[in-house]
Amino acid sequence: MSLLAELKRRNVIRVAGLYLVAAWLVVQVSSTILPMFSAPEWLPRAVVILLAAGFIPALVFAWIFELTPEGVKRESEVERSESITANTARRMERQFLVVLALALAYFAFDKFVLAPRREASIVASTTQAVRADVAAAEKKAAGDASIAVLPFADMSPTHDQEYLSDGMAEELLDALAKVPGLKVAGRTSSFYFKGRNEPLDKIGVALGVAHVLEGSVRKQGDKVRITAQLIQTSDGFHLWSQSYDGDLSDVFKLQESIAAAITSKLKLVLGRSGQDVKKRTVSSADAHEQMLRGRYLFRQRGHDNLLAAVAAYQAAIKLDEDYAEAWAGLAQALVVIPAHPRDNERAVEADFIANYRDAIAAADRALALDPESSAALAARGLAREVLDLDWRGAEDDFRAAIAANEHDVTARQWYAELLVAQRRWAESEAQFAAALAIDPLAAIVIFSRGMLRYYHGDLDDAIASFDAALKLVPDLLAVQNSKIAALIDLRRYDEAKALIELKSEPTRSLMLAFIAGLRDPARKQEAVAQVMKNDIPIVVFKPSHLAQLGAHDLALDELEREFDSRAPFRELLWCMPSFEPLHGHPRFQALLRRINLSPDGKPLPPPG
């Protein structure tokens, strides 16, 4: 008998066919199933190796052994007359057909169902990877196209020109902020590093910028020398350095030359030259100097500084009646003065009606000269909100200010605070996020966002914001008081008391009595009596404390009295959590109508 005939008789060929088809099916199924269970990468390969290694032994086994009714025996021990290889062959042929059918079914399922899904998954993952690469490249490019303008050093002989050196840096910052594609860190964050001698790489990380512009101003008589240098924050490499000499009458020309040179150096990442710098003119160098002096004083805040800023802006306007920036600066100084009264404990809004009216008039004049003055629009918006309680008009102004200058952090902050007053939490958070993306170290914005979170009930987040603001400016009294309020609301009384102990009388006794009344119902009346002694006419003080102590009628009495005297912060009535138990009371709803809000907090048009 030939070898081929013997292989057929002993079913070796059938075993080979059945083994190969079954092995293929096992490999295909395992390659699909194992990844679903996060099997290690070596396991599918191990299955293939084991099946391949078992092929020859299976054929050898089929050649040597035979399946009989008594079990497996060596083929040489089975008589030909007793052999059942023919029956075994028929069973194996049926098994082969079944396995082959399963293999064909799986092949069809894989081709028409699994393969399209795999291809879609590959396309999706590839697309996602490509998009991630593109986003990373765009992010890197955007990061490279970023700069902070640090305050310039005053190198004048008498060192009395800080307002000029600060003003020069701020003017350059404003010019660069208008260049498309260039990220410019906000003024407050950049000026935070004034006099700190921090390493440039640390400044770059803190502000999220790849470059800094630093320099100096030296004024002597009517002559001025401006030195500027553009530096990479990553390694301190100087990309460009230049000195400019000129008269103060040429100050705008000098600023434009510097800004154009900087953007020219950045054109590879910007994809454009420095011609985007907006050119400005002013008829009087003295007027410009007074405007810079006013801006410098305005940034210092405080009642006396703000009055001096008003005087400087007015002096600039007297020299140049069409100086839009001076009019806008005057509007902002006037509208901020009420928040910084000389006698903080006695000031009421009625004392400052003239300020708000004058602020609106100054803003209108600035907008007549420059319709896109974001500073004027923001000032008018705040005056409309606080004085006229014209919610819609104020919002229109804030939105217009941001549209005119998306880098105007003050406009975004004031708009966010208006949104807070209406409990439009998500919209307010978006404005604060945008403001802090520009000016991440602006303590007042960080504090204001903390107040959003406080009013919204996110007390732990609020305290985190207050702590961040205090880390930047430790002596911010409003932030300290707000942190105490949040700790009290969280019933972390001992922590609150530790901060209250640092305060002077009568605030210290009042706050300790307030906490005692919250902790012990038996001392509530004593706490109410102590709170009633507080005569600070601010809505967030006495009425709020009375409401928290459960003295709702007294709280309403005080609210009505303070509304009659135009006490500050009436616009916060709807958003303050301490007044939530009063929301359904007719007297409270009548107070809402007095600030042009409906019972559900929706803006109403101002009367008349």
Quickly list its features.
608 residues, alpha/beta, Rossmann fold, six-stranded mixed beta sheet
What's the helix and strand layout?
Blueprint: H1 3-9, H2 12-33, H3 42-64, E1 65-68, E2 71-74, H4 85-144, E3 146-149, E4 153-154, H5 162-177, E5 183-184, H6 187-191, H7 200-207, E6 211-220, E7 223-232, E8 238-247, H8 251-265, H9 267-270, H10 285-300, H11 303-319, H12 324-336, H13 353-369, H14 374-388, H15 391-404, H16 409-421, H17 425-438, H18 443-456, H19 459-472, H20 477-489, H21 493-500, H22 507-519, H23 524-532, H24 542-548, H25 552-564, H26 586-594
Parallel strand pairs: 3-5, 3-6, 4-6
Antiparallel strand pairs: 1-2, 6-7, 7-8
Describe it.
The protein is an alpha/beta fold. Among the domains are: 3-123, no CATH class; 146-277, Rossmann fold; 503-608. It is 62% helix and 8% strand. The chain is built from 26 helices and 8 strands. The protein has helices at 3-9, 12-33, 42-64, 85-144, 162-177, 187-191, 200-207, 251-265, 267-270, 285-300, 303-319, 324-336, 353-369, 374-388, 391-404, 409-421, 425-438, 443-456, 459-472, 477-489, 493-500, 507-519, 524-532, 542-548, 552-564, 586-594, and strands spanning 65-68, 71-74, 146-149, 153-154, 183-184, 211-220, 223-232, 238-247. Strands 3, 4, 5, 6, 7 and 8 form a 6-stranded mixed beta sheet that branches. It has a two-stranded antiparallel sheet with strand order 1-2. Strand 6 (211-220) and strand 7 form a beta hairpin. Helix 11 (303-319) runs antiparallel to helix 12 (324-336), helix 16 (409-421) packs parallel to helix 18 (443-456) and helix 19 (459-472) runs antiparallel to helix 20. 38% of the residues are buried. Mean pLDDT is 83; it is low at 129-142 and 269-276.
